[in-house]
Each structure stands twice: as C-alpha cells, then as structure tokens.
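Task: complex structure prediction.
Instruction: return structure tokens for all chains below.
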Amino acid sequence: MRLIDLSDAKGQIRVEFGGCNMKCPYCVHIHQPVKQWTVDEVVEYAGKSTTENVYLGGAEPTLQKDLLPLIESLHGSGKRIILKSNGMKPDVLEKALPFVYGFVLEIKAPGDDVKGVMELTGMSEERTKKYLKLLDESMVIAKQKWLRVWIRVIPEYVNEETMSRILPDLEDASEVMLYQFMSNPDFDLPFKGHNEPTPEWNELKRLGKMVLEKVPRVRLVGDRGKLVLQK
Ligand code: SF4
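Output:
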C-alpha cells in the first residue's frame, strides 16, 4: 500500500494514502512522496495503539488494492474505522460498508456546475459527468452509516448561491464540515489567485447557518480555529 503518512495522535490513528484519480489543481497530497507498507504492518502499527479510532484518508484510499483486506483486518481487531473518499468508487464503499463506522465524502461544488467541477478536479467533461453520477451513488451508500460531508469553500464555486443548490444533497448526512480554503498550508496550494485564507470567517459562518437547516451539526474550520454549530 502506498502511504503518505501514518500517525497516532489525539485519539486517532491516521492512515494517509498516496495517489488519486483526480487532479485537483490546489491539492498538496498528490505531490507528496509515498512509502510502501503492507497490510500486516499497518494492522500491527494500529494494534500497538490504545485508541480504537482509525481514519483512512490521504489522497484517495479507494484506489489501494489492499484497502478492503486492511479494513476487514482492522475491523476484526476491534477498530472503529472512518473511510474518506472523493466518491468515485462507490463499489469499494459498498464493500467496505459492513466493516466501517462511517464515511467522509467530499462535495466540491453543486452537481449541476459541470464546468466548475471540471476546473476543481482537473478532469475532462466526460469524466466529470461520470464522476458526478458515481458521487451520487456513493452518497446513497454512505448515508447508511455515519457520514460527514466535507466541503472546501473556494468562493468562486461555493458561496451562498451555489450552496443553496448543494443543500438537497446534504439531507440525511450526519454532519457537514466547511473548510476555509488556504487556512491550512498543509492542505492547499494557491488557486484562482487565493494565497490567503478565503472566504472571510463571517462568510463561512453564514454558509454554516444555511447548512444547519439540513443537518444536525456543522463544523467550521479556518483561520479562526474551529467552531461547531448545532441545532
Ligand atoms: S483534493 Fe482530494 S480528490 Fe482532489 S486530487 Fe487531492 S486527494 Fe484527490
């Protein structure tokens, strides 16, 4: 398995995989070096930790051919697994469903904004349209468990107008995380001329309040830290 990082901190083992089937122009992770680990090595690492929580993220975990054996093994050893994905592989999410506690899926922009999603993912029109259908399938699967929808707020694509078109897709998610673009240099490369955290924190809060109409909890993450909005 190709790993960017493996860590055990703050009550969570984080397995960050390398490689992705998208080419998002602001993505840090697809440029990071990877190291090979076996399933047994990762399971052994996790077994030494006292925490039961395992987050499988990175770039895109569902591309790893050993992902399902890893998930089954971690589940068998009593771990509580959260699997993050861009949603392009609903078949993998379906197979992982019995063994995971929940999912984190990313929505990049409204599904009717094909041009915007093409810019955000670096994919062709044909591939983008295919991805949007696959993401719909992934959302249906993931909503059978705990689901956090992760939205990177880049103002040209996610704003009050476009959020109103994203809202129907958020129904039945457990929570939504709104992340202020460029607020964590470990996550983002500059894009569309944005070198600083954007949009302003108050705009993130406004979007959070809109989203709270659809889900019980919204987490805001940005240059002011973290804020949880609850119903
Ligand atoms: S931002 Fe996410 S979906 Fe896009 S290339 Fe990076 S890991 Fe893949």
